[in-house]
Amino acid sequence: MGDLTTTTAGLWLAVVLSGLYHGINPGMGWPLAVSAAMMERRTSALWAALAALAAGHFVAMLAILLPFTAMTTLIEWQREIRIAASLLVIGMGLYIAVTRRHPRFLARVPPSRLALWSFLVALAHGAALMILPIYLGLCSVEESDAGHRAAAEIMGENVRLALAVSVIHTLAMIGAGAALAYAVFRWLGLRFLSRSWFDLELVWAFSLLLVGGIGLWAAI
Amino acid sequence: MNLRPDPTFYPSPKLAMEGPVEKLAFTLMLSPDFSQPDGLAVVNVDPSSDDYCKIVHTVIMPEKGDEFHHFGWNACSSSLSPLTGHAFLERRYLIIPGIRSSRIYVVDVKEPLNAKIHKIIEPEEVFAKTGYSRPHTIHCGPEGIYVSTLGGGGPDGTDGPPGIFIMDCETFDIIGRYEIERGVQDKHYDFWWNLPRDYMVSSEWALPPQFENGLVPEDLLSNKYGHRIHFWNLRNRTNIQTIDLGENHQMALEIRPAHDPVKQHGFCGVVVDTTNLQGAVFTWWRNEDGSFEARKTITIDPQPADPDDLPDLLKGFSAVPPLVTDIDLSMDDRFLYVSCWGTGEMHQYDVSDPMNPKLAGKVEIGGIVKKTKHPNGKDFGYGPQMVEISRDGKRVYWTNSLYSTWDDQFYPGDRGAAMVKADVGEDGGLALDPKFWIDFPKGYRTHQIRLEGGDCSTDSFCYPSV
């Protein structure tokens, strides 16, 4: 299989690239790390804020992936599950493309609770969902190599896979965010913040549609 | 929609100071006898323009009797925090409440010379959705547009306490009340906040029966006007502390926090001390443990006067009180401007040390007794009132009317609208620009001024200046 969207290497690349993409988006929080470091006048506050953002993002990934991990044991339904997941992602993409609204309840989260905010924003904007078709793709690649095995064994393997996907995605995400936050804090200055911020909402929605569409195509 | 943040949104106060200089000002015009509809004047303040000092456009409202007072933008620099989730709003609409009618106008000023009404929110909608009346101060913040009100429900606005309500920052729909726990707060006036530190401060003027038909002397002398400031957990929407400035400190009005969010102090102006007729400014600050304190740091003495020169209200005192009716803080948190509406003076204090303000400059214009003329020879009518500072801190603009019925008590007769400008020296000092004078249409008075691209009493910042 030479197709990048269905090979293991291609799918892992997608995990990393989506992480980088989420990380550089100011909407996922890196400017908050800059603000924290400037407010407290120490670089360690930058790392603490980034750690909180990463923790929230990571847990949001797991919150989406683990329920589907449980379902991957239903091997005979695998195709349907992948189709449903892809449709879910496409639905989220359409919703964001049409409404382009930021849920107001996110503004109620106090600035001191960055991990909670990061968790909620990753769910609300579909960042965690974006990973789902990629993860299910990886599950099916692994599965086709393995043949028939006990459900518990598959489950254990897929939990490990979900953890690996979440860890690698989050590392890529926070790596990209940290690089930008540190650069703005140390060298580029706040002017860079307002100049480099682009409205990614539509691009974001199309990313969801794209990922969902590829997932759907691969499943069918 | 923008693809990038509005260029007039600045991450920090320092960057706001470095932005382009304002070329237009927006000034509210009110008809004190309600014979004409109120309006918004677009004033050219660009000295290089042929239209300098001219009103280049007016938006006249369809209704009468609104009584315009304060107003604000739909969006400001606070949008640049990812926490708010709307970085791509435009600074495009002015939200103008009528404090007498409770009607709210949303005026689209994207093309300032063609500014027009975008939406009207009728008073019934405000009453039904919030239980509040008489909307006043506007600030844009994390959950949308926050509007303070001076009245509760019922015809005279005393059915329940006044408070703050929230409007959607895109559709301008009223969402509902802000407060979840208001504590002892039962009056309202101004409010502002520190966004990264998540606290809000609010102040108290009076209940509607105490101001709508004029100042009630018995209430003032028995210290029944507002004299407390309230501190809130902003996102929790709860009152966490109330400080009583002392009941003699009547009418705690403008709240001016330091613009730089790293600083945890601010100021509040008090109109009159009933024990000695002084005007005062309090400095409030937040301690490391999150508690707040306030201390009086500026007092301005009344000036002796012949009772014959005084309106009925003041004859018995043989003195004219300064009446600190507005204060405004420069973007670098260095100079605090204090309007003395009674004596006809604009004071400039160096508040580099907020606990120890020093008088750095002063301009005399108007006044109940002194009636100082503008350098161009024209009468200023009333005293210096709503004051607004350019972002770079070099120009200070102000108008002359306080509130229709109060104007008539302190300055009987109709004395005309005014808007003047003073220039600030390199190291402080204040001098009126003899060439700057705006002629307003007959029968109007002027109140708050907003400057194109933001000013020193609109924008809230999420990143420090350093």
TrEMBL record, chain A:
Protein name as annotated: Arginine/ornithine antiporter ArcD
Transmembrane segments: 6-24, 45-69, 81-98, 114-136, 161-185, 197-219
Domain of life: Bacteria
Alphabetic keyword roster: Membrane, Transmembrane, Transmembrane helix
Coiled coil ranges: none
Automatic annotation (TrEMBL), chain B:
Enzyme Commission numbers on file: 1.8.3.4
Pathway(s) of this molecule: Organosulfur degradation
Pfam families: SBP56
Enzyme's top EC category: oxidoreductase
Catalytic activity: methanethiol + O2 + H2O = hydrogen sulfide + formaldehyde + H2O2 + H(+)
Gene Ontology terms, MF aspect: methanethiol oxidase activity; selenium binding
Family of this protein: Belongs to the selenium-binding protein family.
UniProt xrefs under PANTHER family: METHANETHIOL OXIDASE
Protein name: Methanethiol oxidase
Organism expressing this protein natively: Ruegeria marisrubri
